[in-house]
């Protein structure tokens, strides 16, 4: 009964250990992984950008459009980006697909940047994209031609200073003469029209003449209220097109080859202190629509003649270039297609001063040792702190080595005890037979089990008990035998010898466990010592510098607390390991005590007859 209980006790312990290990492994398997992938590990920072067409008032399908992203110091950390924005990269919401873009202006003095990004915008729901930066080793990938589709024939940003306007669409329709400019336009720079108009290249007219549909769009800000003037015009014979202002009210006037005329008037007048978006769409179905600030204000069943003469910006006469408009013009775009109302709505909302399309989230830093909080703390640790941390690291390695060695020893002891107990149970109290089988070369027991059993502490206790029993049988002259039966005093003496052996085996199991108690109790105090010293040094440095602020104190305090954290890193694993090992040692100790009772009981039952006693006594 005692042996069966002992086996149940050992088996239950093994099952509990296996269950605990399974729970730990499951917890590790279910641990959350990285929440977000990183497009490219060479970039240190990124920012989430959301394009919300609903917030911008866009109601229809837009498709892929060039979106203006304004960067300023309130939403972007210019100090962490490469010069001239060479490391700027835009990636789609899947964090895998790079988006084409180009930089109109990147001003590191005033921390302003205007970037155009080609984005597929989905109607009715936000479109997320990523802005990556923080890679000083890369080169710029700004590509204005790839930012626009094939139908975009001309784009003037007017950000050139004292130079002819460059066609950002990549079609080569750049101006040939410089224009008067202002730096504080709506989007970067702007063209200032006063005395001289700006002639557009003939190549633009030739390209537009090949398609039946055209879209003109621009931003205008008149110099005076209720001003008159032609913003954009083109004339060939009787045919003409004029986009102009009459007492500040936008209108478009169209004349056909036969002199037929159409006029579409706006509703409200423009003001000198406000930019107004004007757009005219001439469709293939002979319908012309005037848009003001992205909203259609009028249309007519008219047809704009495809003229091959040069168009004029800010006047009517291509020969004299006399200006009839006084004010500023920005972001002139001409397309050889019929842009949708949603397209123009998005452009007016996104490019204006109250951009409701683009929203910015906070910056995210790539988690590395040098850029993360741990790296910052480690860089702030002083020499005394490193000395303390070094001592704690040595203690940690010692405690880990002790836990590994003791864990291996205890597992081996438990396995050997289990093998011996199986043989002890099968012997049914025949100590002589079991002794011969274990110490000899008996073939009845497998060699592996015999060798394993010899390493068991229970085997050493069994051998001690058998040897003590033999000594008593051969010491009859000393009174160890009375009436042919072992006396109770001899039984107690044998028990004492076995107990003595058990104590030595337990001492072997407890050897070096004191090192774990030192790590548990001493680690936090050593770490606290490092923290106190670090705080003292930090405050002494602040007092010497005479500068009291959070930025001066925080790194030193954080570094000082690192010593306490290191102490806890030593103590906590050692505490868990010590408790686990202590429980295992107590289990083995209990197993030994049960074995002592079983051995003495079987000895009293099976060796109380003269035949049994003399059989063992003659076994030498």
Automatic annotation (TrEMBL):
Residues 85-160 form the DUF2341 domain. The chain crosses the membrane at residues 386-405, 514-541, 553-576. It holds the Pfam family DUF2341. Residues 473-593 form the MotA/TolQ/ExbB proton channel domain. Its main location: membrane. It comes from Hydrocarboniphaga effusa AP103. It is found in: Cell membrane; Membrane. Belongs to the exbB/tolQ family. Residues 1-37 form the signal peptide. It is a multi-pass membrane protein. One of its GO terms (biological process) is protein import. One of its GO terms (cellular component) is plasma membrane. It comes from the Bacteria. Keywords: Cell membrane, Membrane, Protein transport, Signal, Transmembrane, Transmembrane helix, Transport. PANTHER family: PROTEIN TOLQ, TOL-PAL SYSTEM PROTEIN TOLQ. This is LamG-like jellyroll fold domain-containing protein.
């Amino acid at each position: 009964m005692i042996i069966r209980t002992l086996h149940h006790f050992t088996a239950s312990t093994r099952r509990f250990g296996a269950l605990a290990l399974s729970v730990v492994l499951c917890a590790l398997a279910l641990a959350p992984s990285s929440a977000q992938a990183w497009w490219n590990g060479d970039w240190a920072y990124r920012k989430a950008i959301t394009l919300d067409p609903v917030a911008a008032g866009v109601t229809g399908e837009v498709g892929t459009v060039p979106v203006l992203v304004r960067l300023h110091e309130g939403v972007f950390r210019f100090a962490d980006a490469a010069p001239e924005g060479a490391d700027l990269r835009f990636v789609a919401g899947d964090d895998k697909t790079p988006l084409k873009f180009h930089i109109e202006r990147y001003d590191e003095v005033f921390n302003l940047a205007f970037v155009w990004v080609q984005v597929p915008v989905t109607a009715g729901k936000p479109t997320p994209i990523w802005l990556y930066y923080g890679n000083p080793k890369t080169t710029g990938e700004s590509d204005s031609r790839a930012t626009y589709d094939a139908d975009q024939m001309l784009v003037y940003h007017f950000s050139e200073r004292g130079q002819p306007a460059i066609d950002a669409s990549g079609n080569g329709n750049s101006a040939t003469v410089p224009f008067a400019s202002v730096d504080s336009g709506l989007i970067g720079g702007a063209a200032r029209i006063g005395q001289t108009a700006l002639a557009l290249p003939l190549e633009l007219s030739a390209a537009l003449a090949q398609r039946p549909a055209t879209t003109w769009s621009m931003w205008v800000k008149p110099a005076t209220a209720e001003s008159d003037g032609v913003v954009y015009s083109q004339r060939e014979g009787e045919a003409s097109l004029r986009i102009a202002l009459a007492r500040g009210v936008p209108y478009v006037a169209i004349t056909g080859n036969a002199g037929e005329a159409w006029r579409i008037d706006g509703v409200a007048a423009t003001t000198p202190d406000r930019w107004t978006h004007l757009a005219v769409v001439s469709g293939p179905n002979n319908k012309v629509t005037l848009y003001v600030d992205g909203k259609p204000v009028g249309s007519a069943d008219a047809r704009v003649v495809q003229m091959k003469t040069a168009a004029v910006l800010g006047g009517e006469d291509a020969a004299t270039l006399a200006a009839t408009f006084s004010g500023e013009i920005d972001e002139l775009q001409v397309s050889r297609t019929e842009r949708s109302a949603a397209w123009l709505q998005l452009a007016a909302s996104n490019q204006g001063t109250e951009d409701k399309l683009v929203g910015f989230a906070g910056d995210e830093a790539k988690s590395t040792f040098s850029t993360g909080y741990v790296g910052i703390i480690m860089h702030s640790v002083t020499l005394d702190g490193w000395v303390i941390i070094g001592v704690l690291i040595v203690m940690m390695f010692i405690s880990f080595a002790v836990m590994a060695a003791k864990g291996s020893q205890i597992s081996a002891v438990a396995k050997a005890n289990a093998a011996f107990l199986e043989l002890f149970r099968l012997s049914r109290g025949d100590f002589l037979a079991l002794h011969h089988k274990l110490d000899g070369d008996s073939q009845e027991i497998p060699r592996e089990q015999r060798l394993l059993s010899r390493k068991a502490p229970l085997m050493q206790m069994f051998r001690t008990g058998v040897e003590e029993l033999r000594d008593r049988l051969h010491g009859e002259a000393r009174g160890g035998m009375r009436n042919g039966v072992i006396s109770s005093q001899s039984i107690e003496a044998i028990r004492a010898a076995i107990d003595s052996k058990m104590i030595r085996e337990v001492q072997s199991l407890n050897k070096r466990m004191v090192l774990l108690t030192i790590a548990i109790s001493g680690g936090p105090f050593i770490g606290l010592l490092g923290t106190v010293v670090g705080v003292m040094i930090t405050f002494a440095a602040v007092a010497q510098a005479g500068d009291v602020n959070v930025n001066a104190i925080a790194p030193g305090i954080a570094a000082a607390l690192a010593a306490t954290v290191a102490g806890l890193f030593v103590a906590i694993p050692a505490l868990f390991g010590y408790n686990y090992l202590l429980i295992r040692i107590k289990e083995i100790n209990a197993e030994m005590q049960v074995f002592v009772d079983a051995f003495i009981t079987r000895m009293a039952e099976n060796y109380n007859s003269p035949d049994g006693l003399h059989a063992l006594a003659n076994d030498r």
